[in-house]
Please model this.
Amino acid sequence: MSKFRGQRAAFGPPGIQPRWARGNKEGVGTAYSTSSKVWFTLRNGIITEVYYPTVDRPHVRDLQYLVTDGETFFHEEKRDLRSHVERLSYHVLGYRIANTEPQGRYTIHKEVITDPHLPCVLQHTWLSGEEELLAKLRLYVLCAPHVAGGGWGNNARIVEVAGREVLTAERDGTWLSIMATSLFRRLSCGYVGTSDGWSDLVDNFQMDWDFDQALNGNVALTAEVDLGKKREFTLGVALGDSLHSSVTTLFQSLGFPFREHRRRYSEQWNRACRKILPLEQVSDDQGDLYHSSYSLLMAHEDKTYPGAMIASLSIPWGEARSDDDKGGYHLVWTRDMVNSAMGLLAAGNTETPMRALIYLAATQQEDGGFPQNFWIDGSPYWSGIQLDEVALPVLLAWRLWKAGLGQEFDSYPMVMRAASYLIHNGPVTQQERWEEASGYSPSTLASNIAALCCAAAFARERGDPASATYLEEYADFLECHIESWTVTTEGSLVPSVGQHYIRIHPVKIDDPRPDEDPNHGTLTISNAPPGSPTEYPAKNVVDAGFLELVRYGIRRPGDPLIEASLEVVDATLRVETPFGACWRRYSHDGYGQREDGGSFEGWGKGRAWPLLTGERGHYELAAGRYVRPFIQAMERFASDNGLLPEQVWDEEDRPELYLHLGKSTGSAMPLMWAHAEYIRLLRSAFDGQVFDLIPEVAERYLAEERACNPLEVWKPNRQPRAVA
Model:
């Protein structure tokens, strides 16, 4: 049985304001097995967030080593050592880390995986360097628990179990425990910034405190590791729904050799990735990013709710986020999730996309819609309505149906409810894909038209031609109005281009008589810096969302209006980097690293997004042009370990802030949407045509001769035009 050690309470409650780690990660890991319900991330050569038992619940801010000789220096792993991180292999989301003292006198080597079958993170550690210095080194574990997703209200205690002392933390019934195969010489609990181990060691290089508990605060756990003669040990971080389950898991995981855990961990991942398509043949990096992207997409699926896939195991600009911002990107966005499923499907995986479809059908609301985003258990987080997030599950269902999958699961009810929702709540969307504006959006209209055509195909296959015709006619109505709703004829961004697509024509969803002229209207820009304009004529705000019209087969590649709009996009949003071209989301975007390099905190400056390089690559392929530069650019935007960032720095280098042109900012990394876009770009290049093109849509709207009167009022009973 376990028992708490003593009652000596740490001083300085409740500690300083808690924060999370930075959002751009160096690694993400989990076992492939569903029995190991724990995930970890890496940043600056140390473990940062640890998630359990679902992929949306973080419990640790970071875990690192502190080093001192007890007399002359004190080093903190994440700040003072030079770090090198590499994957164990192409497919395996385990990592080798070497953190070296600036003068090269010693190195901390680590291999980080999880127990292949239990919720325990394992970090095998050994030291190398100058023997004279190594003999003096003292190594300390420092962990900042954020149990149950928060830094406040944590309870830290020293517990005695089976003759060993264990570091523990608890909040809201979830327990975390830490122990090593080597003994802990000295252990202490404290409050961050006052009585924690860092504060203890930094003044005199000695661990003077050994508090038994630190309750109800922002706490830290500290222990000195007995290095012994081998200077090698395995550290375990286990989680459970009780103290007993946590420490039992910890002892079980540490009770078997690390090499055996690593062997099984690697076997799981290699087996899971054995059957993917050979898309590395069209890559420019021998498949490195492809294999990393595939494993990362698989790792972002939950193990309690099969098929649920989050946007990213990261909290963008986490160093500026506290308990009042619980979401981060470890939530389900239907748009991101469908993109992830499509990426896996493009690689030849059919089982995970099928699980994703079933999960979405089970999560769909009664009215046919989906929340803007939601927790793994289906509970909504934000409350916005985005019509593309209702349309995209229909496209996934259609894709799986056409692939001959899903005979055992009937997606038809989900498809028809979603189609009904699109008709009853469109064509104006409360939010487009950038989640900030209401109105007529080219990208949203594209997804809706494609989804309605796919739903019509379902209905006709089910013997319901009346519903099929109805859906197709409404899709035709939307298609006929794309230009009249979203193309300005008074463009002034590029003097030679007066007619082009705009980002969105702003209209309120409850306006019974909206002004449908895209030359009119003012667009409010979210997240604008203080003192800067927040409103601009909508006709002067552009993005490249209209490329979705080509992706699905609604407009032709090379269409003069598409090409003219790209000229405007390139003139206003394109960024040249040493790694290739990248694009910002839209004019005057405020979501990104600030001008001074500071974190986004409600305002900033929108930076360039690598996934948009992938979208442009799809268009260039469709237009019959050279796609390799876009594949190369995405590969070069990735980190050394194959992680693609949400945003890259798009100005001159700021090395003092770790910001380099074309490399990640403090936003999310990895972003699963970007990885999925990359895999689909490879598949498109492999096939020689856009993977997401929907033949039924292209056959309907790319006929050589077709009649379309954009001023015609939609009539539910009119016959669809003939397809040439």
Observations:
- Residues 423 and 487 are 22 Å apart (CA to CA).
- Confidence is low (pLDDT under 50) at residues 710-724.
- DSSP finds 18 helices and 27 strands in the chain.
- The longest strand covers residues 120-129.
